[in-house]
Design goal:
This protein is an alpha/beta fold. Helices cover about 40% and strands about 20% of the residues. The protein is elongated and about 95 Å long.
Length: about 425
């Protein structure tokens, strides 16, 4: 059971109350809960003690009792006081939207790095919400020879959490340094990195698998992908790039999560190109794209070369598909069926500037079969002619490969990208 209370000024939000409530329903199901009832309330002012007001809270309490509900989920972020007051009145456990997202992240984190990131976000969220019960939680009792009741359990818990946060931050900083080291090693080889970003459940992992023939988990659940995955992708020009699959974004993504996933999101910041994947079948597509751009701005990646991709055209009717008009720089695809994927690969090839493609003419002897095989492996052969014991080749090669074969080039190259 969930309670949606729009915050002041929410009417100006890109998401309306109904869309926000529907998204919370999807989050709730992804967290493994069953939605029994939804309530939508509009207020001019939020109640500082109960968020919803005493009258509405009594109505909620009655429905909790009638439906035997054991959990209330609020779309608005609750203060510790509000959470305690609502729990006391409703007689069941109460969480807010941020806690649901954290729970989903905890369920889906598989690698040690991902688990560290989620735990750090959880502890940063929990720390200001710890509540004690005063002297009854003391670890030491009063009496002769003592200085008082001693350290309260609340203080012990806070100290333990802060110590754990420091350890997790150190571990993630080490991960960040290792990632930077691997990235610097990759930079010695001219290979571009392309990052997939988008709203959660937009089909990024399905597209990643389609492009790289990987087997990354795909699921209709939100935030199915948490741990970053990097695979090599061959473009039509035979040029190689690294494709990175990243965690999905969402409206009002908790800042603690953005901070915790900094090491992962740096792959987006360092990418030469960003493929921004949107679900074109979603009625909230425009709003979701705005939310993705907000997160990109927050992590400093909005100035990157961005290629918008409208995915899931297979879910549209013929009339809807014909009515959908993508812009000049927007591609329509279906990662599930493969429609438009070849066009996407060609568009990536044209827009990437790292290791540009050049057209060259090369000459090889019969003894230089190994070097000739590089042309076929790493480039695209446009023509071949055998003359006087030599193989004359017209080809398109990445600049790095052309440099390796410089002594076989007989005509200067012309950059194609």
């Amino acid at each position: 059971m969930r309670k949606k209370v729009p915050s002041r000024g929410e009417a100006a939000s890109v998401f309306g109350p109904e869309e926000s409530l529907q998204e919370l329903s999807e989050l709730t199901r992804s967290a493994g809960a069953v939605v029994e009832e939804t309530i939508l309330q509009s207020r001019d002012r939020l109640d500082p003690a109960t968020l919803v007001g005493r009258g509405k809270l009594e109505e909620i309490r009655q429905q909790v009792a009638e439906k035997n509900v054991d959990l209330l989920i609020f779309d608005s972020e609750l203060t510790p006081t509000q959470q305690r007051n609502i729990e006391a009145q409703a007689g069941c456990r109460v969480v807010d939207r941020t806690q649901v997202i954290l729970d989903i992240f905890a369920r889906h984190a598989r690698t040690r790095e991902g688990q560290f990131q989620v735990e750090l976000a959880q502890l940063n969220y929990l720390l200001p919400r710890l509540t004690g019960r005063g002297i009854e939680m003391s670890r030491l009792g009063g009496g002769i020879g003592t200085r008082g009741p001693g350290e309260t359990q609340l203080e012990v818990d806070r100290r333990r959490i802060r110590r754990r946060i420091v350890l997790l931050e150190q571990a993630l900083e080490n991960v960040r340094k290792q990632r930077m080291h691997r990235r610097s090693r990759r930079e010695t080889i001219p290979i571009a990195t392309v990052a997939l970003v988008g709203y959660t459940n937009a089909g990024k992992s399905t597209l990643f698998n389609r492009l790289t023939h990987a087997r990354v988990l795909t699921s209709p659940q939100m935030f199915a992908t948490l741990d970053p995955t990097l695979r090599q992708l061959e473009l039509p020009s035979r040029r190689r790039v690294l494709l990175s699959d990243t965690v999905g974004f969402i409206r009002n993504l908790p800042h603690t999560l953005i901070k915790a996933f900094r090491a992962t999101l740096e792959e987006v910041c360092e990418a030469e190109m960003i493929l921004m994947v949107s679900d074109c079948s979603s009625p909230a597509r425009t709003q979701q794209e705005e939310e993705v751009r907000k997160v990109l701005a927050e992590i400093g990646a909005l100035d990157k070369r961005i290629l918008p991709i409208w995915n899931k055209v297979d879910l549209l009717s013929p009339d809807e598909k014909s009515a959908l008009r993508a812009g000049e720089d927007t591609l329509l695809i279906s990662a599930l069926t493969g429609e438009g994927v070849e066009t996407l690969l060609r568009a990536m090839d044209l827009r990437l500037t790292v290791d540009p493609i050049e057209r060259v003419h090369l000459r090889f002897t019969q003894r230089q079969g190994r070097e000739l095989s590089w042309v076929y492996e790493f480039g695209r052969v446009l023509g071949r002619e055998e003359k006087n014991g030599f193989s004359e080749i017209d080809a398109e090669l990445p600049y790095s490969v052309k440099t390796r074969l410089a002594k076989f080039v007989t005509k200067p190259g012309v950059s194609r990208s």
